[in-house]
Amino acid sequence: MNLRRRHKIGAEVNTSSLNDIMFFLLLFFLLASTLVAPHVIKVTLPKASTGQSVPKKNVSVSVNREGQYFIEKTLVTEQQLNEELKSYQGKAEEVTVIINADSAAMVQPFVNVMDIASRYKLKLVVAAQKK
């Protein structure tokens, strides 16, 4: 009596579910990597008893489409704008001028604000919308 099998059964591993697992792992790591700040260095700062923090001040200057100037929602002339920004002269590390210009505004009033801010060596930021 011959008890041997005619067909050999090969060991087989079904890997079709591994594709799903690898996809979910890849997706998890891609999402998790966007939440991690890669260029952050954690530093414990030393303590000082006489240290003072310098408060930062943002001055918002707006230019509408008619070329009018606004400082913090108050309508001003170009001369008043010049005097206001002149009062911050020498405080460039404390004051940042933020320019909000209408997209349909003329270029010259916008350039005037940039010129006045650079004359007094103030930091300048131009506000824009995302596309």
TrEMBL record:
Gene Ontology molecular function, alphabetical: transmembrane transporter activity
Coiled-coil segments: none
A Gene Ontology biological process term: protein transport
Membrane topology according to the record: Single-pass membrane protein; Single-pass type II membrane protein
Chief place of localization: membrane
Gene3D superfamilies named in the record: 3.30.420.270
PANTHER family in alphabetical order: EXBD MEMBRANE COMPONENT OF PMF-DRIVEN MACROMOLECULE IMPORT SYSTEM, TOL-PAL SYSTEM PROTEIN TOLR
Family to which this protein belongs: Belongs to the ExbD/TolR family.
Record's protein name: Biopolymer transport protein ExbD
Origin organism lineage: Bacteria, Pseudomonadati, Bacteroidota, Sphingobacteriia, Sphingobacteriales
